[in-house]
Amino acid sequence: MVMGYRVGIDVGGTFTDITILDEKTGKISAIKIPSTIEDQSIGVINGLQKMNTSFPLEEITYMIHGTTVATNALLERKGAKTAFITTEGFRDILYIGRQTRPHIYDFWAKKPAPVIPRSDSYEIPERIDFAGDILKPLDKMKAIEVIEKIRQKNFESIAVSFLHSYINPEHELKMRELIIENIPDVYITLSSEVLPEYREYERASTITINAYLQPPIKRYMSRLEDRKNQLNIRPKIHIMQSNGGIISIENASNQSVRTIFSGPAGGALLGPFIAKQVGIQDVITFDMGGTSLDICLTRKRQLRITNESEIDGLPIRVPMIDIHTLGAGGGSIAWIDAGGILQVGPESAGATPGPACYKKGGTLPTVTDANVALGYINPNYFLGGEMQIDLNLAKQSIEKHIASFFNIGIEEAAAGIIDVVNSNMIRGMRVVSVEKGYDPRNFTLIAFGGAGPLHAAAIARELKMPQVIIPPNPGNASALGFLLSDVRYDYVQTYIVSDKHLEIEKFAQIFDKMKCLAYKDLKAEGFQKQEIRLIYTIDMRYLGQSSELNIPIDFEVKTQEDIQKIVETFHQFHEENYGYRMEDEEVMFVNFRLAAIGEVPRLIKTPQPLEDKDPSKALKGTRKVYLEGNWIDASIYERKKLKPGNYIKGPAIIEEYGSTTLILQGMDSEIDAFENIILKFE
């Protein structure tokens, strides 16, 4: 096999991060460049061209890209003009939704608007029942009439979701044929292909979002591929999915909804990787970039994959890593609300104009400005000195908008900004831990992102977490996480049946159909059958319940007795999650799921021998920093000069390209054999 460079590219709201793995030596390098929000592909290409000064682009062997194009297009409502076609009588399904009210006591709460207005929703006479039997054939004349209306309005994309198409897609397939005959150049999304499972509202919401995002994602992917080819980069780009797996750029274009949490997934993958490195089980990843904070809890080195999520209040039912995201990043803007209370975020200054200290026209104070004003960030060593930032502009912004309002000093105002954003992030940490029954005191915090290592110590101290781990190149850690991912395709088929009536032949038939699709898709990705790993799970519940538990099947199912073993596993899971079991109740099998994984070569890091504890060779000097209400001297260290075994006592700061680590008073830190910084409280 030809050895070269594996490249992970993570586009964030402020910076585009590129991590390069030299397959010959195992060395990992990092590049950061400002994101180009108007067209992310420009920033990606700029980063690759910068990379070309040290790493020959023609020697790239593998590329993985995480993008926020889908997320931004959805949140900003900048998707394609899309039509929705459904069964007659169900035109309002996107607007009726569910009775769930997240803010039950808020009289002014507003339901999130679907991405498709009611005027662009159409219905066709047809009906298939829950068993897949056709009750009313598709009305071809009415269908053609609706298609003509859509053609005249110049829709770019069409979402088709008929009732019970998950069990029988015949009418959706006929509808696609009619659309292609009359509007050959329109994008088409069928619910039976993107999400063949029951619950009509969630299915309709998911596929309308897919249809809404498909054209802008396709255009972005095409631009990126064209620009990459102009640089003579040979390998195709793979795209990170929300589930932590990667797919081809073509499939990412067709199933755009699977890329909504593309970027944060890379950081989450670092959790089990580092946990295995240092020999621990339970971790929480803390990925704080310029725009947002992404938090993910990993227990027993296993990421939790959820099939139920939402963005901007809209449900999305595709597999994704269970990540909690907050509008808390280095670029989060500090402001005073109507009640005179200091708030931070969720609005961000982004890459342009950016924080005031960036000297790009930003005037509002941000978390980064506060960190600069408090002495935590060295203005002359931002991005290793590549980007100069202005301490005076940071102070002026904080003075004008915060300090003058409260009639306090700049350092007090800056410290207040840090306290507020830390409080916001601590609440987010409790969402993934305490609110789900986990004690954060039993977890290690793994912090990365450009801003994560600055705030991690304070977060861990408040939550009484035992230690903090800062991996090498934390500012580019998510891009490194991409290089830990495998190719992954997920399949689902709804078949609702009681355990008393599920026959082994039907069980095998459902999974065999999905296995055929899996082998076909993974073969197209270059994997042979023996290189593909299959993961079987089933969504199950007791008769009468409205939600399911996802039950793993880790043994071969050949007999009816094996099905009863699955039922027993469900009882165990139910008791673990809810504290009780009901063995006399019927158990319902609902959704049959298959994950097909093609494993890529593993990233292996070799532990280095530990040297002595003395870090003096990395000492750059001291700097005044504002901690706990006072200006004190803190030792400043250069991370790339620190060696495994070195020990540092706080207060101290470790500087490196892309990030800065703050070590508080009362903390010890050491460099382990994998060059991680391990922070612990005395």
Describe the structure.
By secondary structure, the protein is an alpha+beta fold. It is 31% helix and 28% strand. Strands 13, 14, 15, 20, 23, 24, 31, 34 and 35 form a 9-stranded mixed beta sheet that branches. A hairpin with a 5-residue loop joins strand 21 and strand 22 (342-348). The longest helix is centred in the first third of the chain and has 31 residues, at 200-230. The chain starts with a strand and ends with a strand. 48% of the residues are buried. The mean pLDDT is 92.
Which secondary structure elements does this structure contain, and how are they paired or packed?
Layout (H helix, E strand, L loop, with lengths): L4 E7 L3 E8 L5 E7 L5 H12 L8 E7 L2 H7 L6 E6 L5 H4 L24 E4 L2 E2 L5 E3 L3 H13 L4 E5 L8 H13 L4 E4 H4 L5 H31 L6 E4 L5 E3 H6 L7 H17 L4 E6 L4 E7 L2 E2 L1 E2 L2 E3 L2 E3 L3 E2 L2 E3 L5 E5 L5 E7 L18 H7 L17 H16 L3 H23 L11 E5 L3 H12 L3 E4 L6 H6 L4 E12 L5 H21 L7 E11 L6 E5 L6 H19 L8 E12 L20 E9 L2 E9 L8 E3 L2 E5 L2 E5 L3 E5 L5 E5 L1
Parallel strand pairs: 1-4, 4-11, 5-6, 5-9, 9-10, 13-23, 23-24, 30-32
Antiparallel strand pairs: 1-2, 2-3, 7-8, 11-12, 13-14, 14-15, 14-20, 16-19, 17-18, 21-22, 24-35, 25-28, 26-27, 26-28, 29-30, 31-34, 32-33, 34-35
